[in-house]
Amino acid sequence: MSDKKISELTALTAPDGAEELVVNDSGVSKKITQANLLRGINNTAADATAITIDASENVGIGTNSPDTKLHVDGGDVKISSDVQSSNGDGIPTIFFGEDTTALVAAQISYHGDDESGDNNFIGIGCNGATPASEAVTKENHQMVIKASGNIGIGTSSPDHTLRVNGDTRLGNLHVKTSEYTGGTGKSIWADNAGTGVLGLNSSTSIQMNAGGSERMRVTTDGLTFNGDTAAANALDDYEEGDWDSEVGGTATYGVNQARYTKIGRQVIATFDLNITTIGTGSTTVVTGLPFAVGDSIAEGVSVSFFDGLATSVVFLTAYAINSEIRFRALTAAGTGLTDASVLGSGCRVTGTVSYTV
After folding, report:
1. Buried b vs exposed e over 157-196: b needs ≥16 C-beta within 10 Å?
2. How far is CA 248 from CA 133, 217, 243, 297, in A?
3. Which of the four pLDDT bands, split at 50, 70 and 90, describes residue 87?
4. 11-53 pLDDT, tens per residue?
5. How far apart are CA 212 and CA 230, in angstroms?
6. 121-136 pLDDT per residue, tens
7. With contact defined as beta carbons under 8 Å apart, do 340 and 349 qualify?
8. Is residue 186 a contact partner of residue 168, using CB atoms and an 8 Å limit?
């Protein structure tokens, strides 16, 4: 405290309280009470309180009512350190511990050795169950924030806005440094908690590579494979389902099973038609193909089994046109294939038709 501050104290005539500090100012006793002990320290206004220590030993800077061990109000707080400082390493650090005797448990430190600022960062670390000295703790960073704004978790050199070195989980979405089944590959997967869809969305394309080469790409045109990006070659549809194979009219059926698979423009349809009574149904045509034939006529109908036909034949085939299958037969008396009325009560025909739409 300067002489000027001491000279401003009130001369002591007689003790007027138990909590007084008496100083000598050129032979004159002066008193310092608890009320003015820290009044005006480093403050140009002599009547302003810069630092307050209350009965609970809370310290207030800028406030005379501190509610924590250190309460700063009305200004910034700066922590600095350089190679000439007491710790000698130029790393200003805030340490956290469980008590005054325990070694450091966690820290927040600033590393500013790079004058350009490119490599400067804030480091946040925790010792966990293994205590360590202050020097060791200062270099223990589970997370860093670089001057560039990049954030690193598990790495002190993040080269992206967020760089995580290790496994990551966002809700039920997992990003693993191993395969889903525990292998040595990498995987992104969602666990089975809750419901929903694991989706990837792009306005252009989503590319999947393996072994350094493109194996599949999802584009607005569909799927392409092995580096082929031509829209004309994109697979834009795949579906499976049932189709209604029937002869119409009042026909009834014992077995009537029909399935199809569509891959792009290619359709493969199977049928197993067992007519109980033909009634007014067609004897030559089965209708109901799931998609209309794109070509004028598709010859790719293979009849794999027939029995109980209305006409005796030695060979039976068919062709597809529009959304129909028309039967052709070689009869015992005939010399060539003709459209034939082969369907009737009690007959059964199975087959496959392959065509493009």
Report:
1. ebeeeebbeeeeeeeeeeebeeeeeeeeeeeeeeeeeeee
2. 89, 44, 14, 22
3. very low
4. 555 555 555 666 666 777 666 655 555 444 444 454 556 788 8
5. 20
6. 888 888 766 667 777 7
7. no
8. no
Tens digit of pLDDT for each residue in 178-211? 766 655 667 777 776 666 666 778 888 888 888 7
Sign for the pseudo-dihedral over CA of 78, 83, 84, 86: positive
Assigned token pair, 71? 């309460």
Domain ranges of the chain: 3-72, 93-164, 200-235, 240-356
**CA 151, CA 287: separation in Å to the nearest integer?**
64
pTM: 0.54
Q: Can you tell me the mean pLDDT for 286-301? A: 84
* Closest to 191 (Cα-Cα) out of 176, 174, 175, 178: 174
Q: How far apart are CA 216 and CA 270, in angstroms?
A: 30
131, with CB counted inside 10 A (0-12, 13-18, 19+), is: middle
